[in-house]
Amino acid sequence: MTAPKKLFIRTYGCQMNVYDSERMAESLGGQGYVETQRAEEADMILLNTCHIREKAAEKVYSELGRLKPLKAANPDLKIGVAGCVAQAEGEEIMRRQPAVDLVVGPQSYHRLPEMEQSLREGKKALNTDFPQEDKFEVLKSRPKARRAPSAFLTVQEGCDKFCAFCVVPYTRGAEVSRPVSRILEEARNLTERGVREITLLGQNVNAYHGDGSDGVEQTLAGLIWRLNGIDGLERIRYTTSHPNDMHDDLIAAHAECDKLMPYLHLPVQSGSDRILKRMNRSHTAESYLRLIEKIRAARPDILMSGDFIVGFPEETETDFQATLDLISEVNYGYAYSFKYSSRPGTPAAERAQVDPAEADDRLQRIQALITKQQQEIQADMVGRDLNVLVEKPGREAGQMVGKSEYLHAVHIENSDAAVGDMVRVRIVEAKRNSLSAVSR
Ligand code: 5AD
Ligand code: SF4
Q: Which among 171, 202, 259, 381 would be 20 to 30 A from 126, CA to CA?
């Protein structure tokens, strides 16, 4: 028997890439690869790339430059680029960096085994198609190995919204939903392997409209209700959502579905209607605020999370102030803010850009406000009793670490809980990025 070959995957970007990397590792497992954490000993290195912000492609090229010496040391080493940079750059990657053997776009991962076969035959392999077949079906996980208590599950991919700044509709393609039956099957399989919490993933997850087994399309709420019936599964989350697809049945699920967690990531991007319009967001600041009112009426304790872009082309100080006002009104438990970065091929790339120093200054101001809100919300957790899903031992003796309903990281002191347990705790202290708790 030959020794298994070693696969090293470096994952950039979003949770969907994390999920995809797991699927790629499983798929190449069928070709005799086992994963390693050390690039130096790998027989294949895959960079699973992200193209959403900053000089993504340039960063990938410099990383490839750093990997080149490994190839000189081991001529059998194969180097591959996957993900959204692979989709956007395609063949150009192999032209600019001849050390690259394989380029595979996000819709072609199920083709990896045959691509790997080409590599064995000494050929290079490139696939950035958007094929019709169900890649998830082909990538279905084989092994029955235990899994960590919290897992991602992709239910929807791609986006039809075409926000003026965003590459996702180009790199991930049009919106596609997986059928309900396949998702339930995967969720049951995960639960049998020890998973207690599933986060449903999609670039625009609340636009989910997958085939139900009865031939009727299901909404995300319908899917969540079905998942709610799986024994052993204790928590359901979903991300990322668009305000325009936040329909009443999903809001009602937040009130009524016991396994759906009180946390919602609902990006608004800006608080200025003028900028929202230029972003092609098709909602206003006011309609977003009314939506949140409705969601909070259904689930008063829900913790809101969002994304913001500062320095979008043509953004004035007045527009930026409107964003700060909106943040103050919503009160976010978590929020992520980004400086606008021009993405070639998107409509906003052609427009008058904001002075970079001004954009930096706005980023600092928005982050200061967001941090203050986050910390106040964390501090408000002190004295409360929460449920924590235990994920791993902490750094100190007797300490276990997990997540609360609201997705805060919680350190439980002197705990005898095991990984995968759901424990009732009292929060005793709010630290910078986590909460401390004692068992109840
Ligand atoms: N520049 C800056 N931020 C961006 N995002 C998406 N595209 C860009 C861009 N070109 C942000 C949005 C989105 C998050 C995932 O990344 O806020 O919600
Ligand atoms: Fe990009 Fe999200 Fe807008 Fe779709 S909805 S284009 S993924 S920012």
A: 202
